[in-house]
């Protein structure tokens, strides 16, 4: 592949910085490698960047979801409404706590949970609604916020892919009672390791998550365990690297948005030829992954590969169709999620693609749709 889907040089230009950080933290007299001053400063920076009351760094985006669900006292007998299309932790996090993930079908164009479906699935057992932003489109948070408020249930916003996104003037992560970010390598603020962050405007959720990530301790007295907690702590080297890279994040997000908007404009005319791009908009967008819906998806994938262009399928099956989650979803149907799983194809959108490369990718998609 001349243009692989996952770029091999994701942290290009930052390797020296990373090595310097490893050396300085590795050789520092305090020998502090987790939850030290770099982590605290990283949390403060993220907290202030979105106007949260608290931001808590933890082991991964998945861990962040589990920590918040635990802080919201989700357990056996509870239901958590999640999208029927998305990544495994959306279903696994509630299930791990003994709760039931209830799958809401998605909008057939944007692939995010359909608010009407969420509203239809609210029951007396619903404890939390957990929508997720998907690919390049944020979920309809104003509608989902009002469903949560009128049902009197909590809202956990899976903004793992949407850090830096804005919808109606509110940052991704701040529409819910809590939101999460992921820093796994491929995410827009990815890093060379595992990590996540919880953001919340609710100081009580913040305090609970902070305890839960470190064995239920309060951070003052060691070996006093107020709650049954996890080990979900944050690495000092990663925190220092993220502190260094945060200043240039807006630049990278802007470049992604520029590429995404160009694609959407080029692909607008392909809707009648079996290739559907996301709806054009500037509000509520987060260009993590640029996904098309192609009627002949596998043929498009082969066509791109023949021109040296990598692509990726997120996700090949709807969540309720996964063997692990099917027992939670007996007898249901999720037509939009199942169609999305057959048609979705993501094309490269990383920020260091050149204009010529972006044009080459767009040309290849257009040629496929128009000529074959
Ligand atoms: C990546 C992702 C997660 C999980 O984050 P990890 O850091 O990989 O655990 C959760 N939800 C969504 C929507 C994601 O894309």
Automatic annotation (TrEMBL):
The active site is at residue 187. One of its GO terms (biological process) is polysaccharide biosynthetic process. InterPro entries: DegT/StrS_aminotransferase, PyrdxlP-dep_Trfase, PyrdxlP-dep_Trfase_major, PyrdxlP-dep_Trfase_small. GO terms for molecular function: pyridoxal phosphate binding; transaminase activity. It comes from the Bacteria. Keywords: Pyridoxal phosphate. The modification N6-(pyridoxal phosphate)lysine is found at residue 187. PANTHER family: 3-OXO-GLUCOSE-6-PHOSPHATE:GLUTAMATE AMINOTRANSFERASE, TRANSAMINASE. Belongs to the DegT/DnrJ/EryC1 family. This is dTDP-4-amino-4,6-dideoxygalactose transaminase.
């Amino acid at each position: 592949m001349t243009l692989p889907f996952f770029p091999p040089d994701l942290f290009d230009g930052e390797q020296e910085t990373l090595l310097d950080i490893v050396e300085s933290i590795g050789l520092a007299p305090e020998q502090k490698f987790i939850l030290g001053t770099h982590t605290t400063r990283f949390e403060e920076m993220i907290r202030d960047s979105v106007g949260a009351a608290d931001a808590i760094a933890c082991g991964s985006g998945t861990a962040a979801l589990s920590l918040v669900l635990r802080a919201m006292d989700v357990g056996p007998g509870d239901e958590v409404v999640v999208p029927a299309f998305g990544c495994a932790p959306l279903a696994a996090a509630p299930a791990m706590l003994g709760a039931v993930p209830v799958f809401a079908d998605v909008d057939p164009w944007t692939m995010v949970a359909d608010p009407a479906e969420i509203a239809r699935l609210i029951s007396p057992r619903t404890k939390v609604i957990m929508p997720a932003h998907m690919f390049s489109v944020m979920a309809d948070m104003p509608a989902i916020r009002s469903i949560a408020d009128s049902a009197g249930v909590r809202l956990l916003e899976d903004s793992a892919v949407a850090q830096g996104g804005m919808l109606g003037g509110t940052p991704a992560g701040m529409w819910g009672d809590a939101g999460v970010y992921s820093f796994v390598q491929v995410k827009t603020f990815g890093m060379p390791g595992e990590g996540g962050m919880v953001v919340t405007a609710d100081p009580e959720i913040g305090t609970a998550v902070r305890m839960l990530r470190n064995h239920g301790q309060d951070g003052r007295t060691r070996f006093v365990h107020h709650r049954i907690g996890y080990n979900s702590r944050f690495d000092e080297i990663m925190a220092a690297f993220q502190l260094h890279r945060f200043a240039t994040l807006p630049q990278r997000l802007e470049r992604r948005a520029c590429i995404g908007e160009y694609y959407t404009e080029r692909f607008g005319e392909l809707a009648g030829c079996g290739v559907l791009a996301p709806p054009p908009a500037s509000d509520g967008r987060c260009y993590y992954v640029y996904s098309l819906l192609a009627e002949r998806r596998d043929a498009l994938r082969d066509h791109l590969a023949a021109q040296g262009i990598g692509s990726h399928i997120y996700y090949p099956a709807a969540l309720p169709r996964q063997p692990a989650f099917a027992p939670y979803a007996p007898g249901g149907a999720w037509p939009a999620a199942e169609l999305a799983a057959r048609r979705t194809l993501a094309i490269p959108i990383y920020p260091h693609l050149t204009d010529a490369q972006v044009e080459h990718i767009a040309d290849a998609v257009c040629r496929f749709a128009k000529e074959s």
